[in-house]
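Render this sequence as a predicted structure.
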Amino acid sequence: MNETQAADDPPAIRTSIDVRRPLDETFRLFTESMDRWWPLASHSVGRRDAASCAMEGRVGGHIFERTRGGDVHVWGTVLVWEPPRRLVCTWHPGRSADQATEVEIGFTAVGDGVTRIDLEHRGWAALGAQATTIQSGYVEGWDFVLGQCFGGFAGPPAGPP
């Protein structure tokens, strides 16, 4: 997943989860049903005022949240859209697009009805002096969002019975 990393760029965050869903269905749930599994109350710009979030499934599409008051906060832009295997997007919730990092999410069928999701968050140097501080919050954040939130929504984790 990782392209070239700048010497002053903190290392990419990587996390994975296996879910008991077929590949196509997992990709669709992740991208089309974001509003049903993303933890808006704790992981949004508007926090308690956040009403919904969505991903526009196409290159150039936005990932955004909408508040109860109707404000829209763009979190990122889709750079690569390869259903059902991969998507790459910029990522800058609560920051301007010139401070965007990059998130790549790969989807791989790994067994009968089981899909592995691999997430890599990189490009921290775009955040300048704040890179390490901001990155540290995402280490546990992505495990929570991917593992507990999406994993709980998509079904029981795959593993030995």
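Summary. Strands lie at 13-19, 50-55, 62-67, 72-82, 86-91, 101-111, 114-122. DSSP finds three helices and seven strands in the chain.
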